[in-house]
Write a structure and sequence with these properties.
By secondary structure, the protein is α+β, with helices and mostly antiparallel strands. It has one domain. The protein has five helices and seven strands; from the N terminus they run E-H-H-H-E-H-E-E-E-H-E-E. It has a five-stranded antiparallel β-sheet. The chain has a two-stranded antiparallel ribbon with strand order 3-4. Strand 3 and strand 4 form a beta hairpin. It is globular. The mean pLDDT is about 90. Bound molecules: zinc ion. The site of zinc ion (ZN) has 7 residues, from helix 3.
């Protein structure tokens, strides 16, 4: 397989509601929130791990393709990633196969998409450094059905709406790849994330995002024109 191009996908990820991507228990500071967000260990600045965006794109693409591709039904129904490992599967080609290499189509090749960690845009970075971009704390409760009152408030740290991050992805193109089909699935994945959410608590309003100034090798891409559920 010959690598013939690496396409650069750039843009801005704009938060339309507070985003919570959890840091995990092992990084909780003493006396800190019990649900902190992930931050750079040195600067303390929030960021969106590439794995979070990549994972969400993949999961949403799989569940949308599931309806049109019987071969992916079983694993998706079981809540697992697509395990087909076939060259004609855009999800496995783009995001990598979860099957052992020996069970994969030998022509599948390396994972095509690379999603970089999204750091704050220079403007937001400046605001953060000057203390003008405070993180917000949202209290999420459980409603007592009988008494109709909120109980057990849990503080959830969120990056506030309006914060913007730098989107940066790369698409490796190998000899024989159907570039247009792969790109179509990248745009569909991004559009699906806009229609769904990033991070935790999406069903409770967290993590609404919009991808702006999207570009492929410097050329503008219009996500509004992407047919999200067309997987021909
Ligand atoms: Zn697959």
């Amino acid at each position: 397989m010959q690598l013939i191009a690496i396409k650069q996908i750039t843009g801005t990820i704009l938060l339309r509601s507070g985003l919570h991507i959890g840091a995990g228990r092992d990084t909780v500071e003493i006396g800190g929130l019990d649900q902190p967000i992930i931050k750079h260990p040195v600067s303390g600045a929030p960021y969106i791990p590439g794995s979070s965006l990549k994972g969400k794109m993949r999961a949403l693409l799989e569940t949308s393709i599931f309806f049109t591709r019987p071969d992916t039904q079983k694993s998706v129904l079981e809540g697992k990633p697509c395990e087909c490992g076939r060259k004609d599967c855009p999800v496995c080609t783009l995001f990598g196969s979860h099957q052992a290499p020996k069970d994969c189509d030998p022509d599948l090749g390396p994972t095509r998409i690379l999603v970089r960690d999204a750091n704050l845009t220079p403007e937001c970075e400046e605001q953060f450094k000057n203390g003008r971009l405070p993180m917000e704390v949202k209290y999420e409760n459980i409603i007592n059905r009988v008494q109709g009152v909120a109980e057990h408030p849990r503080p959830l740290e969120r990056i506030p709406a309006g914060t913007a991050f730098v989107l940066s992805m790369a698409l490796k193109v190998f000899d024989g790849d159907k570039v247009e089909e792969l790109l179509q699935h990248v745009w569909q994945g991004l559009k699906l994330v806009e229609m769904d959410a990033l991070g935790g608590g999406g069903s409770r309003g967290n993590g609404q995002v919009r991808f702006e100034e999207l570009k492929l090798d410097g050329e503008a891409v219009d996500l509004d024109k992407v047919a999200v559920f067309d997987h021909k």
